[in-house]
Write a structure and sequence with these properties.
583 residues, mainly alpha, two-stranded antiparallel ribbon, two-stranded antiparallel sheet
């Protein structure tokens, strides 16, 4: 039965793509590409274009966001987001710790709470900690968190909520900075050091059978920067005799492992190197960069790093004699300047924000901005983010290539967008989910099951998707159980957690309740309600078939309850539909 359910869900998703394809095929070419590929985008031509842009650049469009985007245009809106104050997580944990039962009562739930508040904008405007509107930054930070992975599913970090909050804040702070600085900051953060065993890593000691740990050395190359195979500038693999070319071998991994020795918590000394972890999760060293302890750093070994055309180190060899910081600087520079980094980062951000299967030309255009922002700067994340969102393939790719454009929505983001749509709030400004999101949705921020994230970027769902040579990363967590649990949780929240509900759990002050009042006004006219949800959830892309089915269903429901039942049915049917499932 589970296999049949999964097959049916896949069929419905593919059907949705086919419906979108049929709709786009009937649209005039001039309407699809009204701006032209060579012209700079000034602003959205209509509300649908605005909503589709905000679906990629935020956690879901709100009416006021669409209005603001029309006022400013794409470029100025992005500039405004670049300048917006940063919403941080660690200060929120500090604030929570001042409430009973104090610091010892703050767990990962509070970190999840502040992420949901920032993403869904659930904050109480009277709280100065939570009045920021840096939606683009938060969206990019979440995308980066799915590449530069650390996780509370790791035993060493399970009770390090401040360390993980600080790590997420680091991603947010560097989202619009330079990728070179981001790589070094990630490398030095104690959460990453603990997760991938660089923290406390030691130089070789044959007498004690100690060798440098290679865990971080492998992942910083494979997952954070260059990948396993050499890439062309458009992200396609370099082939020799039809075979991909490896980017590095074991000697290179060993070289980086020796570089990454001698680092530990801030405040550690040579004497307590093996036993200096802070006693409490809220202690400052969990939020401070690791520091070098030279006595444990290997400065006597020549280290083979990456070798590529134009490499600064002759042959990629780092000669012995440098201190820990000097060698780390050289190693990060060696990685950052590898030609793979531009297309590697470009493809990841495109996949997380826009589409699972970007064309090679799209990847190449974004990678070109990574390589040179127009002012000779490499790694400028502002230039990269702007290029990802304003590329003509991002803005009009659905019309140009409907059979390959788009992505399966990440399940947790469906809940976030539902809350944004309904102006959800709790009575006391707090958030309590009862169960952890990875149980129902298969994911939660900084809670991946491994360093490979919740899903791999090259995962292809068996069947039509794989046969077509496409990838579908998010389908990897569209398991038999989650295809049931996520809609069940959404049903529960839509039908029981709203302002005015008499459900017992909805009476708790920290339960997020949706405000249906504006939607109930629209429910008098079912078509008007459906079109509102079409804009806010599907960017105006709803098929005629789906619209007719929904309107017919809603017209059959009574208005004696002020439209409540119509609103609830409309929300549940749309947010669990195959057409909404594909962004």
């Amino acid at each position: 039965m589970a296999a049949r359910l999964r097959a049916r869900c896949l069929f419905l998703l593919l059907l949705a793509l086919a419906l979108i394809s049929n709709s786009a095929a009937q649209a005039p070419v001039g309407q699809i590409f009204h701006g032209g590929f060579e012209n700079d985008l000034v602003g959205p031509a209509n509300d649908s274009e605005a909503a589709r842009f905000l679906d990629q650049a935020t956690f879901g469009p709100r009416t006021q966001d669409i209005t603001r985007l029309h006022q400013l245009g794409y470029q100025a809106w992005i500039d405004e987001q670049f300048a917006a104050p940063i919403s941080l997580e660690a200060p929120y944990l500090d604030w929570v710790s001042t409430r009973p039962p104090g610091q010892n009562g703050v767990y990962q739930q509070a970190r999840l709470e502040t992420w949901l508040i920032n993403a869904a904008q659930l904050y109480d405007p009277s709280n100065p900690l939570l009045t920021h509107n840096d939606q683009l930054r938060q969206r990019v930070a979440f995308a980066l968190s799915e590449m530069l992975v650390v996780s509370d599913r790791n035993a060493a970090l399970l009770f390090q909520q401040w360390g993980l909050a600080s790590y997420y804040d680091l991603l947010a702070q560097h989202s619009f900075g330079n990728y070179r600085q981001l790589l070094e900051a990630v490398t030095k953060h104690p959460a990453m050091g603990s997760f991938l065993n660089m923290l406390g890593n030691r130089k070789p000691d044959p007498a004690l059978n100690i060798r440098p740990d290679e865990n971080f050395a492998r992942e910083v190359l494979q997952l954070f920067s260059i990948g396993l195979h050499q890439l062309n500038s458009d992200g396609t693999p370099v082939l020799v005799n039809g075979q991909p070319v490896p980017t590095y071998g074991q000697a290179t991994v060993r070289g980086f492992a020796h570089v990454f020795t001698g680092w530990n918590f801030a405040g550690c000394t040579f004497a307590d190197y093996d036993d200096c972890e802070p006693g409490n999760p809220y202690n400052p060293p969990w939020q401070q960069p690791m520091q070098p302890i030279e006595g444990f750093h290997d400065n006597t070994t020549h280290k083979q790093l990456l070798n590529y055309p134009g490499v600064a180190l002759p042959g990629g060899l780092l000669t012995a004699g440098g201190n820990a910081q000097a060698e780390l600087t050289a190693a990060i520079n060696n990685i950052f300047n590898h030609p793979n980094v531009g297309p590697f980062v470009a493809r990841h951000l495109i996949q997380r924000l826009v589409t699972s299967n970007p064309t090679a030309a799209y990847v190449q255009r974004v990678a070109a901005q990574f390589n040179n922002n127009g002012q000779g700067v490499r790694g400028d994340m502002r230039a990269v983010v702007r290029a990802v969102l304003l590329d003509m393939e991002a803005r009009f790719g659905q019309q140009a290539a409907p059979q390959t454009f788009g992505k399966l929505r990440e399940p947790l983001l469906r809940l976030v967008q539902l809350w944004r749509l309904s102006n959800a709030r709790s009575a006391n400004g707090r958030v309590w989910l009862i169960t952890h999101p990875h149980v129902e949705y298969g994911q939660a921020p900084l809670s991946a099951p491994s360093v490979f994230n919740f899903f791999k970027p090259n995962f292809a769902q068996p069947g039509e998707i794989r046969d077509a040579g496409l990838v579908s990363p998010e389908f990897q967590i569209a398991t038999d159980s989650l295809l049931v649990s996520a809609p069940n949780d959404l049903y529960w929240r839509i039908f029981y957690f709203y302002v005015g509900s008499t459900y017992s759990y909805a009476q708790d002050a920290d339960q997020v309740l949706m405000d249906y009042a504006p939607l109930r006004t629209l429910a008098v006219n079912p078509l008007q309600l459906v079109e509102h949800l079409n804009l806010r959830l599907l960017g105006g892309g709803m098929s005629t078939f789906m619209r007719d089915v929904l309107v017919t269903r809603l017209q059959a429901l009574p208005m004696t309850d002020g439209g409540l039942l119509r609103v609830q049915h409309a929300l549940f049917l749309v947010i669990t539909s195959p057409e909404y499932s594909i962004q």
